[in-house]
Amino acid sequence: MNDDNRYQFDQACRVKAVRLAAQLGMGCHVSINFLPNAVYEPAACIRTTLEAAQQHQFPTDRLIFEITENERVVDKDHLKRILQEYRRRGFKTAIDDFGAGYSGLNLLAEFQPDIIKLDMELVRHIDTNPVRHAIVQGILGVCKALSIEVIAEGVETLAEYRTLRALGIHYFQGYLFAKPAFEQLPAIHWPED
Fold first, then answer.
1. What residues are paired with 65 via a beta bridge?
2. 110 pLDDT exceeds 70?
3. Count of Cβ atoms closer than 10 Å to residue 86 Cβ
4. pLDDT at residue number 160
5. What letter would DSSP give residue 159?
6. Separation between Cα atoms, residue 80 and residue 156, nearest integer Å
């Protein structure tokens, strides 16, 4: 991927995600990460995604668009227009890898998504690390005040899961629950409380 094919790559990934979700019969939400610097016209990008959903008979109300913090946002106003267009059309929005990238709280101050996904480095060893515990607790307070849902990424141990639940997090992803699988839905293990 390079600057010449970034837009086509972003579009191809969206279409493939929708097609695969439909083929697998996913009955839950599907998160589509996007590169904000690759979206030159929000309505056109959405149109391609909507066409893919219609073609593959996947409900559009189950799509969540995630901006990843791993790419430096060149134009914050452009990103705000993208997210406003997505929300105007009824899609949920999310910040992926929150706490790991370029923007952090500054990005959250610019726009408030429906969801943030805590980066796994904040989650790792939260049961024994008082600094991570305090940071996550602070983020949760901000999110509660702004009515933003929180998903903990990268949960690998039962102790991490229990600590995060005790902090008030209800949504999780990580190896504790399932390992990724190529073009298939993996078996899911829900720990007993």
1. 32, 93
2. yes
3. 23
4. 98
5. H
6. 33
The dihedral built from the CA positions of residue 11, 171, 163 and 157, taken in this order, carries a sign that is negative
pTM: 0.87
User: Residues with Cβ < 8 Å from 82, sequence gap 6 or more?
Assistant: 36, 39, 42, 45
The CA-atom distances, in angstroms, between 41 and each of 38, 48, 64, 98, 134 are: 9, 11, 18, 25, 39
Q: How far from chain centre, in Å, is Cα 112?
A: 13
Q: pLDDT tier at 37 (50, 70, 90 boundaries)?
A: low
> How high is the pLDDT of residue 150?
97
For residue 132, give the DSSP letter.
H
For residue 99, which phi and psi values (nearest 5 degrees)?
A: 100, 0
pLDDT confidence of 146, banded at 50, 70, 90?
A: very high
How far apart (Å, rounded) are the C-alpha atoms in residues 31 and 65? 6
